[in-house]
Amino acid sequence: MKVDVAIAGGGxxxxxxxxxxxxxxxSVALFEREELPRDKACGExxxxxxxxALERLGARRHLEASDWAPILGIRYLQEDGSxxxxxxxxxxxxxxxxxALARVLLDQAKEAGVSVHARTAVRAHGRSKTGMAxxxxxxxxxxxxxxxxxxxxxxxxxxxxxxxAMGCASTSA
Length: 173
Ligand SMILES: Cc1cc2nc3c(=O)[nH]c(=O)nc-3n(C[C@H](O)[C@H](O)[C@H](O)COP(=O)(O)OP(=O)(O)OC[C@H]3O[C@@H](n4cnc5c(N)ncnc54)[C@H](O)[C@@H]3O)c2cc1C
Prior knowledge:
Elements: E1 2-8, H1 12-23, E2 28-31, E3 45-46, H2 48-57, E4 68-71, E5 73-77, E6 83-87, E7 93-96, H3 98-111, E8 115-117, E9 120-127, E10 136-144, E11 164-170
Parallel strand pairs: 1-2, 1-10, 2-8
Antiparallel strand pairs: 3-7, 4-7, 5-6, 9-11, 10-11
Bound molecules: flavin-adenine dinucleotide.
The site of flavin-adenine dinucleotide has 24 residues, from helix 1, strand 3 and strand 9.
């Protein structure tokens, strides 16, 4: 089946993009090579702009009280004891368990109608005006949502609309 938007990567960026796109009325398929919700090493601090983004998504209110704590300011401390500190603007930010953030965003994506494919890595993409072989996802747009710059993948990001097709492979054992 062809969807409007295919998203490669199920981290916060991919899930947030998927939620926005689905709520805008687009059909969305998201592919994540690992399990979802996904944990990863993270300081787990969300600054005020990130918090506003979570609020716009309606995701913040789904966080359990035990999953987060307020961050009112930041303090940098040097080895010689000198320090620099300041308050964050407005209500500040929050520290939130990465697993809780991932779970809430995943729930919101599913609720918005995103077709979620965990343990499915995107291996390649191409363009076609005809039907693709089974097991491939066709879409008008392809969005890559992983942060690491990679020369091989640079041309993947924000492919313009067209007959984009992705080759996907399950990473399940
Ligand atoms: C030690 C550490 C501490 C950090 N602390 C903070 C912090 O306090 N606050 C903060 O805001 N940020 C912090 N960060 C940065 C933050 O974790 C990242 O900026 C954030 O995870 C980026 O989100 P993302 O969705 O762009 O990418 P990611 O979270 O990396 O998600 C990308 C996803 O794409 C998937 N993927 C990759 N290739 C494929 C493929 N071919 N097919 C399918 N899926 C694929 C990956 O498995 C991954 O799940 C920290 C990072 C580190 C390493």
